[in-house]
Structures are given as structure tokens and as C-alpha cells.
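Annotated sample (chain length 158).
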Amino acid sequence: GSIGVFGLKFDATKWAKSYGIHGDYYPHGSHAAAMHPLTPLTPNMKENISRMVLDYYDYFKGIVSTGRSLPIDEVEKVAQGRVWTGEQAKEVGLVDALGGLDRAISYAKKAHTKTERVEVDHWPRRTFRLEDLPGLLAGREVSYLDTAPAPPISGIGK
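Output written by the structure step:
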């Protein structure tokens, strides 16, 4: 993970112009169309986007500071958009323990509920695929978080 924020401004004006496309809009303020893809980036817009990114970054560091009980200057030492492995994050005090999704859900149930009976929604939800059918018929549970392609099923399509 990391403590960092970035911002993007998609500018499709040259592409659109090459196809004869133009956009009309009726802004209600000087920056109302700033994020419109057919509005070119101006120095003023760039300055505003940079300011928003820095504001979000400061907000994010504040959340980390409060949540980890660390002074802001200590958070800044490990932030700056650096990417940490789980073990590195534990060494610098950004996490308490290592584990996967199941461990995190188990911790959240114990720490933040009275009964530990909760319903967990997994996102993104994977849609049913024909490849799921043999497993379902065999009584196996299909993981809807798995986005890797399923192995081919022999005999289908021949």
C-alpha cells in the first residue's frame, strides 16, 4: 500500500478535433467545465487540480495520523506516495498485523460488532460464466472475486 494521492485531467480535444467532434457546454462558473474531456487544460485548471490533490493528500495523512496515533510529521516521513509491502508497512507502524481479506473481515467482525453476525458484500461481483456450471453442479462454491479466466472445459465446443 501507499500514502499518496494523484489526479488526472483527461483531455480529448485533439482526438475529437481530428474526427470533427466538438463539445458545447454552458458552464455556471469559470471552472465548471474543467474536468470535461473536451475542455483543454489551462494553467489555471492545472493549479486548481494540483491544489485539490494536495488538499486530499493532507486529508489522507490526517486520517492516517489519527488512526495510527502518529504525529503528522511522522506520517509524512513514511508517506510521500511511497509504496510499502505489508512487512515494510508493519515495520514503519502503518499496520498492526499481516493477513488477507478473510483475516481482515474476521478482525472487523470481532472489533466492531457485538454478535459477529454480519453480511459481507464482495466487490467487484463476478458474473456467472458457463465454466462455473460443473463446479456448481458438483457442489463447489464459486468465488465471485476470482477474475482469472477459468480453465477450459474439455468436451465443450467440439
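Annotation: Confidence is low (pLDDT under 50) at residues 152-158.
Annotation: The chain has six helices and no strands.
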